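Researcher: We're teaching a course module on how sequence relates to structure. For the next exercise, students receive a sequence and then see the predicted structure as tokens, so they can try to spot secondary structure elements on their own. Here is the exercise chain.
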Amino acid sequence: MKLLLVKTSSLGDIVHAFPALNDAARSVDGLVCDWLVEESYVDLPAWHPAVRNVITVSLRGWRRPPWLQHIPALRRFLRRLRQEHYDLVLDAQGLLKSALLTRLAHGRRIGPDARSLREPLAARLYDETVPVQWKQHAIDRNRELFAAALGYAVPDTMEYGLRVPVDGGRPKPAADTPYLVFVPGTTWPSKRWPARHWQDLARTAADAGWRVEVLSGTAPERNMALKICEGIDNTSVATSLSIEEMARLLHGARAVVSVDSGPGHLAAAMGTPGVSIYGATDPELTGTRGPGQAQLRADFQCAPCLRRYCRFPDRGQIHPDCYATVPPERVWGTLLGLIQSREPSL
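Model: And here is the predicted structure for the students to work with:
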């Protein structure tokens, strides 16, 4: 069977689709998969052995003016997308934009039904729809969707099935230096653990003899990372990394501390122990999954609010307010427990 999987972004969402693809590869004889993804994530789908080709789209880039300059790239994309007929075109993103991309491909188009979507109009663009339960983890939603579309029962065990290229390339930091990775960056302001908490945690880790790498991508994330490291020995900012370089950094760490963000989910998929911090979002729906994972949730009146922005005003202390219930001492104690449980001699 030839499958075209439409899952364009973001990093965490792509990682959440791997267990479903792994189920399908084990359950459907002769399955080969092409994956349609945003070009900034082009390296990621190929880490699963069932993926034959990665087709890239640049919806984010094409939104930037002047729009006429994007016409040649759009034409090349359409030719590449439509040069092959698929047995099944599966939209695992479930948005209007991904449904439109699904519609452009050749093959039987399937996606979640209207009741299973945040944007119900998307369901009108599929040839067939299947129901997917809302109140479950994103990984389980993907697994249920794939199983219903491809006609098999969801397996009892869950595996990501990744073959991540973590050997070779530039080591960061030195391979013989034990280190932790902190991931403070995230797209939602409401998911950001306060910088002063990160500073206290970094200082505690450094005082305990650990080297700390603070991961950053965008300019605001880099500024926050620099603030976290300011005045603390054995800390540095890891920035401008490719997806593969980031994977090597995460894979080599003894443990990762992350908010609800893509790198934290990638680390979990690779088996790196991690503590993830949840305030605005719900770990029951988007918590890290894998060995050695601990989720710390805020204990607050409106948590999880599932809002991009906190409704409480920033009073210049702990903001969002819910993170006062997840202090650095709690995170450090949980992190140390994870590390010691895997390396009892420490």
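Model: If you want an answer key for the exercise: The chain has two domains: 2-150, 179-342. Residues 11-27 form the longest helix (17 residues).
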